[in-house]
Amino acid sequence: MKATPGSVNVPVVCAGARVSPGDVIVGDADGVCVVPRATAADIVRLGVERVAKEEKTRERLRKGELGLDFYGFRAKLAELGVRYVDADE
User: Fold this and answer.
1) Are 77 and 84 in contact, with CB atoms under 8 Å apart?
2) Mean pLDDT across the stretch 64-81?
3) Phi, psi of 65 (to 5 degrees)
4) Residue 87 lies in a domain
5) Which domain covers residue 49, as residue numbers?
6) Distance between CA atoms of 78 and 57, rounded to whole angstroms?
7) How far apart, in Å, are the Cα atoms of 56 and each of 42, 61, 71?
8) Cα angle at 19 between 6 and 47, to 5 degrees?
9) Buried b (16+ CB within 10 A) or exposed e, 26-65
10) CB contact set of 37 (below 8 Å; sequence gap of 6+)
């Protein structure tokens, strides 16, 4: 049994990460991160923008467009002397 009541609303360190009162903890199958309270609103906005961008990318891929083209990799490969050969050729 504990002999003291402990502390609340104080910074702690968990798995090497400092967590301050009010920080937001975000986790998924890939891991967990600490978002400082002061930047949480910006991080949410950036996350929403990223999800929207990724959905547009997935839609382009579903329509048959190659990432090789819309990311501009074909030109970079050509600069490196690599010739892309389509499987249909």
Assistant:
1) yes
2) 90
3) -70, 145
4) no
5) 12-79
6) 23
7) 21, 9, 13
8) 145
9) eeeeeeeeebeeeeeeeeeeeeeeeeeeeeeeeeeeeeee
10) 20, 22, 23, 24
Is the predicted pLDDT of residue 89 greater than 80, yes or no? no
Determine, yes or no, domain membership for 86.
no
Q: Is residue 84 part of a domain?
A: no
Domain assignment present for residue 19? The answer is: yes
Secondary structure in 3-state letters for the chain: CCCCCCCCCCCEEECCEEECCCCEEEEECCEEEEECHHHHHHHHHHHHHHHHHHHHHHHHHHCCCCHHHHCCHHHHHHHCCCCCCCCCC
For residue 87, pLDDT beyond 90? no
pTM metric for this prediction = 0.64
| Total of domains in the chain | 1
